[in-house]
Amino acid sequence: MDPVDMGVVSIGINDFFFTKVNEKSAAVSWAPSVECVVMKINLQGNTTYIYFESAARETLRRAAAAYMQDFQDKRLDTEAKKADRAYGSFIFPVTWGLMTQNAEGRPAVKLGYVFKDGAPYFTMSFPLMKNDLVESGSKVQSASAFTLYFTRAQLQDFIEKMDEEAFAALNAELGVGRAGLASPDVY
């Protein structure tokens, strides 16, 4: 089943030297057959897809809420050394490639914040990613590290696109079932 377009979000992305934040647009969609939010963004010459599975979405929501509260309560530390992981980390599946998606990885992404030019940003920091498909013949070895930066407004917009009730309604409308092993057949 084809993904359902959920719109476009504005995000920040690091430059090559991680000194500046450049604004980019990212397409967001809902993949009902795998119940995953997919962010599509052009990074470093590749088309990159970041997959937000259910547990990842919940982790991101909790991290975003904690960041918003820390911002409001003025608890963000401008001098903190490890603030980029202040809200934990989580595994986010990622695929990338120039013409096709011929590389994939499952990096542990740090959720936190940084200050750039005096302004705070919520961050998702992706480490250097090894390509899990190398053994299957892919020539791509890895993808460079990158960081996604969100202002509070950008973060709120992105979180609002991950509305579980809207996804359930979409799945019902599309006839996507939720049959599983929770209720085994009785014979």
Topology of this structure?
Layout: E1 4-14, E2 21-31, E3 36-43, E4 46-52, H1 54-72, E5 89-91, E6 94-97, E7 103-105, E8 108-116, E9 119-126, E10 129-130, E11 142-143, E12 146-150, H2 152-160, H3 164-174
Antiparallel strand pairs: 1-2, 1-12, 2-3, 3-4, 4-6, 5-8, 6-7, 8-9, 9-12, 10-11
Helix pairs in contact: 1-2
Structural description of this entry:
It is a single chain. With 187 residues, the protein is α+β, with helices and mostly antiparallel strands. It has a single domain (4-165), classed as Transcriptional Co-activator pc4, Chain A (Roll), CATH 2.30.31. Helix content is 21%, strand content 39%. It contains 3 helices and 12 strands. Helix 1 (54-72) packs antiparallel against helix 2 (152-160). The longest helix is centred in the middle third of the chain and has 19 residues, at 54-72. It is globular and about 60 Å long. The protein starts with a strand and ends in a 13-residue tail after the last helix.
Q: Give the biggest sheet.
A: 10 strands, antiparallel
The arrangement of helices and strands along the chain is: EEEEHEEEEEEEEHH
The shape, in one word, is: globular
Overall CATH architecture = Roll
Would you identify the regions where 5 or more consecutive residues have pLDDT less than 50? none
Strands of the widest sheet, in order across it, are 5-8-9-12-1-2-3-4-6-7
Radius of gyration: 18 Å
Q: What is the overall number of helices?
A: 3
Mean pLDDT: 88
User: Percent range for helical residues?
Assistant: 10-25%
Number of domains: 1
Distance between the termini: 32 Å
Within the CATH hierarchy, at the fold level, what is the topology? Transcriptional Co-activator pc4, Chain A
Class, according to the CATH hierarchy?
A: Mainly Beta
Content-based structural category: alpha+beta
Strand fraction equals: 35-45%
Count all strands and give the number: 12
